[in-house]
Design goal:
This protein folds into three domains: 178 residues, 3-Layer(aba) Sandwich (Rossmann fold); 189 residues, CDP-glycerol glycerophosphotransferase, C-terminal domain (Rossmann fold, 3-Layer(aba) Sandwich); 188 residues, Vaccinia Virus protein VP39 (Rossmann fold). The chain is built from 27 helices and 20 strands. The strands form three sheets. Strands 3-2-1-4-5-6-7 form a seven-stranded parallel sheet. Strands 16-15-14-17-18-20-19 form a seven-stranded mixed sheet, sandwiched between helices. Strands 10-9-8-11-12-13 form a six-stranded parallel sheet, with helices on both faces. Helix 2 packs across helix 18 and helix 20 crosses helix 21. The longest helix is centred in the middle third of the chain and has 25 residues. The radius of gyration is 29 Å and the shape is globular.
Length: 661
């Protein structure tokens, strides 16, 4: 389900044929994009569509494994077809198989009519980023303010609304049950144990840099909890569900852990861990936020919002991060950018919150400001948005609407499977030739094991020390130790199963033996160094395996925590490197690491190439950074770090990839 191995590709082609046949027979086939924490924004549409169209085929395309697990936990025993979102992004399916694609996140899918359902009201100037305007066929708008924001940013980016975009005044399905008062109180709320005798203050900040959570979120909660007058409930944005390493999402902080610590100190602070905020909107008396669009959900219920002023978001984040070089003056005064500050009091200091809260509670009917304007300004079809969405979806299906965006070529068997078969056949041919000639085709000039070992002993040095002493470039001294220091803190803190590709002299193995190792498997193709490694390191933990320069064929699926390779992929043909990358997908466990260096397109200028030539090196193979990025997208990895290190006549770039599903 989550990789594009040949076996999975064959399965997907069977699925593709199944969809195409059913579509030809008149079946409706819909796909919903499922992103982390965002089921809440499309669940009502999905449920009502299934109820009214029981014969339709529904595909759920998941961002990652965590999204998949969250979904099946919610929809246990329901029949859906599950695929990975990147299968769609690779244009594997087209409108010949899928009728409509609906999503609350990211971009539409080429060749399939794509509808943007959104994940909240507009705020922070990010809802209608320029790429979204070009990569969807239709927007299901929540209300007049939503449409106002769309036209504002269409004018800002293009001078007019792009011709490919169709607008439908649907409303906000997630709000229907709140408006109709049919929402069932969440078990998560009951489990919090809040004091029903007290008023409840909901703190629901935005996740962004310079929003209140990162600026003074902990201090805000402490201030609200003082004197134990109120229940203070914190609801973190869905972005905080992502790992702390994702600096964009959470600033490198595990906010769930930090606020949990507060809950142990303050008996009236509660952390709500449910994804959907609706139960809290019912329970809370006042919302405290900054620039989060969740404020509009509370306002739509005519309940008061108090805003924490965040000038640095507008003066720094918007100007320097999101819209560098653009004129964003006055955006802090625009309702669909500032989170609706015209509808509630704004505090300059969090220490003013207790006084303002007291004022709002004592004169509750006066808040929010312009109360009568809010429902008609924020929502189309209040209480009936889900029905409206289903009606529009069925209309689009009946009319067999096609995407008007530029069509790209679909993912075809002839463009993937056949070349792959040819490449495998070529590798086998090269392998046979290698065995016949008793040498590695791609490692001519590789240092001789016996000679190197003798010379090192003669000089009273380790092999690593001896080789470094032979360098005429002082920058290369200490290279191994610098690399180890750069990668070691990413290793999981547990007993590890490790693979090293191309171990050679064992210089990196030597530095990693102190780790808590369950096994350390070596794939080394040079016979001389294999024998040296067996004599020097072979034991119950370190295993020297037969290598063919093509596969990790002695390693079972999903059994390895870390794979690393040093100065190996700098000389291998790009297709051979890809083969190792795909093998890593197979053998690594979830969250496993693949660490390697390549010569990428920023490592080798013409002058560098001349230096290589001057030093007598001719083996460099350049692999573009974009190639590694594309691999990560297709195979479920993320680049968690990269760094440069001196190598041969220039530098190489080390990548630390993490398998995220």
């Amino acid at each position: 389900m989550y990789s594009l191995s040949v076996r999975h590709i064959i399965s997907l082609y069977c699925l593709k044929a199944f969809f195409r046949i059913n579509k030809l027979l008149g079946k409706r086939i819909l796909t919903f994009g499922n992103y982390l924490g965002e089921i809440q924004f499309y669940k009502d549409v999905l449920d009502l569509y299934r109820l009214k169209n029981p014969d339709s085929i529904i595909i759920i395309a998941h961002e990652n494994e965590e999204c998949y697990l969250n979904f099946i936990h919610l929809y246990n025993n329901h029949k859906f077809i599950h695929i990975h979102i990147n299968v769609l992004q690779a244009n594997f399916f087209s409108n010949k198989e899928i009728s409509l694609y609906l999503t609350t996140e990211n971009l539409g899918i080429q060749n399939i009519y794509s509808i943007y359902l959104f994940h909240g009201q507009p705020s922070k100037a990010l809802s209608f980023h320029w790429d979204k305007l070009l990569h969807f066929d239709a927007f299901f708008l929540y209300g007049p303010m939503h449409k106002e924001a769309l036209y504002y940013f269409s004018e800002y980016y293009y001078g007019k609304l792009p011709e490919n975009v169709k607008l439908f005044e649907v409303g906000y399905p997630k709000m229907d049950r709140l408006i109709n008062r049919t929402i069932i109180q969440s078990e998560n709320i009951n489990e919090l144990g809040i004091d029903k005798r007290k008023k409840t203050i909901l703190y629901a900040p935005a996740f962004n840099e310079y929003a209140s959570l990162r600026e003074y979120g902990i201090e805000t909660l402490k201030e609200l909890a003082k004197k134990n007058k109120y229940n203070v409930v914190a609801k973190l944005p869905v972005d905080c569900l992502r790992p702390p390493e994702n600096n964009y999402a959470n600033g490198g902080v595990n906010w769930f852990e930090e606020i949990t610590k507060l809950c142990k100190t303050y008996s009236n602070i509660f952390l709500y861990k449910g994804h959907s905020i609706e139960p809290l909107l019912v329970e809370a008396d006042i919302m405290i936020t900054c620039i989060s669009s969740v404020s509009f959900e509370f306002l739509a219920l005519k309940k008061p919002v108090i805003y924490i002023d965040t000038p640095n978001f507008f003066d720094i984040a918007l100007k320097e991060t999101y819209f560098p070089g653009q004129n964003t003056n006055g955006w802090d005064k625009i309702t669909f950018i500032n989170g609706g500050k015209e509808f509630g009091p704004v505090v300059k200091s969090i220490y003013d919150l207790p006084q303002v809260i007291a004022e709002v509670l004592s004169n509750y009917q006066a808040y929010p400001y312009n109360k009568d304007k809010l429902p008609n300004y924020l929502l189309y079809n209040p209480g009936n948005a889900t029905n409206t969405a289903i009606t529009k979806i069925n209309e689009l299906l009946v009319s067999s609407t096609k995407s008007l965006r530029k069509v790209t070529k679909s993912f075809q068997m002839t463009s993937y499977i056949l070349p792959k078969i040819k490449r495998v056949a070529k590798r086998i041919k090269n392998y046979i030739k290698f065995k016949k000639n008793n040498e590695n085709k791609y490692a001519k000039g590789y240092i001789d094991a016996i000679t190197t070992e003798k010379e090192a002993k003669k000089h009273g040095k380790s092999i690593c020390e001896y080789l470094e002493s032979q360098n005429d470039d002082i920058r290369k001294v200490g290279r191994r130790d610098r690399i180890i220091n750069n990668i070691i803190h990413y290793f999981p803190n547990k007993q590890l199963s490790v693979i090293e590709i191309g171990t050679g002299t064992g210089m990196y193995l030597e530095k990693l033996l102190h780790l808590n190792l369950e096994q350390y498997d070596i794939y080394e193709i040079n016979e001389g160094w294999k024998q040296y490694l067996k004599r020097t390191y072979g034991n119950n933990i370190v295993h020297i395996l037969e290598a063919d320069g093509i596969r990790l064929n002695h390693t079972p699926n999903q059994t390895i925590d870390v794979i690393h390779a040093h100065a190996v992929f700098v000389y291998l043909p790009i297709i051979q490197v890809l083969n190792y990358l795909v093998e890593a997908t197979r053998v690594l466990v979830k969250n496993g690491l693949f660490i390697f260096d390549i010569i990428n397109d920023s490592d080798l200028t013409v002058r560098d190439a001349l230096n290589w030539n001057k030093a007598g090196h001719s083996f460099a193979v350049v692999i573009p950074h974009s190639f590694i990025e594309d691999f990560c997208i297709l195979y479920g990895f993320e680049i968690i770090s990269n760094f440069k290190e001196i190598y041969a006549g220039s530098t190489s770039t080390y990548y630390i990839l993490k398998k995220i599903y």
